[in-house]
Amino acid sequence: MQIKQELDALFQEALTEMGIDEPVSSVVEAGKPEFGDYQFNGAMALAKKLGKNPRQIAQEIVDHLPETPMLSETSIAGPGFVNLRLDGNWLAAELQKSGGDERLGVGRVEDPIRVVVDYSSPNMAKEMHVGHLRSTIIGDSLANLLSFLGNDVIRQNHIGDWGTQFGMLIAYLEELGEGAEGNLKDLEEFYKAAKRRFDEDEAFANKSREYVVKLQGGDVRCLELWEDFIDKSLGHCEEVYSKLHVGLTREHVKAESSYNEELAQIVEDLKEKGLLQESRGARVVFIEGDENPLIIQKSDGGYLYATTDLAAIRFRVHTLGAKRIAYVVDARQAGHFQQVFAVARKAGYAPEDVKLEHVSFGMMLDKSGRPFKTRDGGTVKLIQLLDEAVERAKGAITQRDAYSEEEIEKIAEIVGIGAVKYSDLSINRESNYIFDWDRMLSLEGNTSLYQQYAYARIRSILRKYGKEIEGTLRLEDELQRRMGLKLLQLEDVLRSAARDAMPHYITSYLYDLATIFMKFYETHPILRDDVPEELRQSRLLLAKQTADTLRMALEILGIQVLERL
User: Fold this and answer.
1) Which residues pair with 40 in a beta bridge?
2) Distance between CA atoms of residues 74 and 392, nearest Å
3) What is the mean pLDDT of the chain?
4) Would the pLDDT of 150 be above 90?
5) Which pTM value belongs to this model?
6) What residues does 85 pair with on adjacent strands?
7) Which domains does the chain have, with CATH numbers?
């Protein structure tokens, strides 16, 4: 359920009763127990408009609040805050109801929209490296979340499969002669070798440029070689996606080349709309407040990323029918997207009712605060990093003797990959991210392993009990009350994370929930013989709903759980 929405509605009703036509969106979590569970902080703004004392306004609002079983206490504090405490019996009843629902009481959005999430976006003919990790993890969790809430989500993998580099690669493959396709087993080394030839040999560089023209002109042999490159590159990407447990497949690929025939149309359309100007031989669009124009076509007739991005926006809005387009791309591209979005608005490719957003993220750094590299300064291959995560995770399995080698491999993969993903998602995506193996595989703090152990511990209790839980849920004390309140906040958290594209809202919530549960587990015995059956049933219900919440939220983030750990 949406607690905040319910509370907002109560205050809206009170203001209407007072004859005040003012929309309410001012109920927030109180933050500290002494302030109650929630606070209404809109009295100060209303007092300014009405020329009254804020505390007087707050008291009038409280006096006009409708009777509700939801609240047990209201009080006025400070300059006019209204502190709210939710009723324990109401909480328990709502928990009992949501615990019996497969979605744990989380509703679907009332007005679902079609959302395009653009993420991962590797370059073809190269192996995926750590630079693709954050976009892939953040993008997939966002797509999962928006879909879970009932939106129609289209995943788009905007791969780089066009341009000069492919002329270079085809020229090098031709130069190697018959049987050279065998060199494509290691795309990274093949690319490096071709790049060295391109940089060192002017004749080879010119030949590469000729092959670009042939490729763009539809030369059959060039297209065959190009398609082979793409196929092998996508095969490598699929291996990474499978290991990462993300939802991208070949059907989600929408390559740069797919927009190639539309680029001339974009130029012509912008010209007809009076947006295109010439600057130093290039065709550009000037944007108000920005001294640097957006280049649409270079002086040599070539197109840029901006041209392709405009074609993609037009396609996603007018063909796919998207109402929200989220680009999960690193923060260094902020200026580019600001310009592209501005031109897309001016050209009518994205009306105002379509949300265009750059879901930016910071850099991935090592523990010294430098960009994450190999020891010799090279780029870290993503598949190697994931393999290392699995190997390191084996050391985090505390009861190795209880499992077969096959089980250890499976557990290590879930723990290792979960650790990498959760570590990324647990920080504000806009911040730079310190990659630290020790921290991400720790049993303490806000880590995946901490959540997975909490889940496995509850599942162990439920297995040991071994029967259906049929009792009535009661919140015996303040700790259980806090736990119940946290469980009921799930929908509010998920909706906020979806609205702001901030997965760390979910991880922060999970850490709070798991921490409260651990305290509950230590102080409230469940299966001990001296626990009355009525209490045991209630505590089992509370524990089970905690496990179900941990599992569901982690799965939304793309992280698997283990029944035993």
Assistant:
1) 27, 82
2) 51
3) 92
4) yes
5) 0.94
6) 73
7) 3-86 (3.30.1360.70), 114-160+253-359 (3.40.50.620), 164-246 (no CATH)
